[in-house]
Specification:
187 residues; 3-stranded antiparallel beta sheet; 3 helices; binds iron/sulfur cluster; binds FE2/S2 (inorganic) cluster
């Protein structure tokens, strides 16, 4: 199946981010979209359709297009900045033009998203019960609902299940996580 006509991630393919109302059933596929200046890497199974990338740079990240990432459509600095807004680590970049590579945020931050995951940014090692490292990351979206099929990572099952946390409080939880990080209310 070609890159262009592959079904969406929510249908089991990996051609574009999953539909907002669907958990992510994408297989563990990494796609690369590159120019001589920058390569964008997309880890399909980590994408939860927060759409931060689409809002940041829609001419580059367009889930209705195949391929859905056009690395020619903006300069490398703009693409790198948009990639860094991906809260799950589904997107990464490698610069080939001497531009700065990604550095982990300091300090490490944990930001709960109302009725959704915990966004973690920093120098992160995620470990399994037996202690072995299952992901070494700069950005991770951790499940808070307990329903994810790939615990400890959110896979959007929270949205599919319309999960709501108990007694949300403005003190305890950010106002939908802030405009940069909140999943869109499209369902
Ligand atoms: S910002 Fe990351 S998780 Fe959100 S739609 Fe883009 S690739 Fe997927
Ligand atoms: S918080 Fe998203 S699947 Fe649990």
């Amino acid at each position: 199946m070609s890159h262009e006509d592959e079904p969406s991630a929510s249908a089991g393919g990996a051609g574009a981010p999953p539909h907002p109302a669907e958990p992510n059933r994408a297989p563990p596929v990494t796609r690369e979209y590159g120019t001589e200046r920058i390569t964008v890497q997309w880890h399909a199974e980590r994408c939860i359709h927060s759409a931060n990338c689409v809002r940041a740079l829609p001419r580059v990240f367009d889930p209705r297009r195949r391929p859905w990432v056009d690395a020619q459509a903006a300069d490398a600095d703009a693409i790198a900045a948009a990639v860094l807004r991906c809260p799950t680590g589904a997107l990464h970049f490698v610069r080939h033009d001497g531009g700065a590579q990604e550095q982990p945020d300091v300090p490490t931050t944990l930001t709960p998203i109302r009725d959704g995951p915990l966004y973690v940014r920093g120098n992160v090692e995620v470990r399994a019960l037996d202690g072995h490292v299952i992901r070494d990351a700069t950005r991770v979206s951790v499940c808070r609902c307990g329903l994810a099929r790939q615990i400890p990572f959110c896979d959007n099952t929270c949205r599919k299940a319309h999960w709501h946390e108990l007694s949300p409080s403005a003190d305890r939880v950010g106002p939908t996580g802030g405009p940069e990080s909140a999943p869109p209310s499209t369902d």
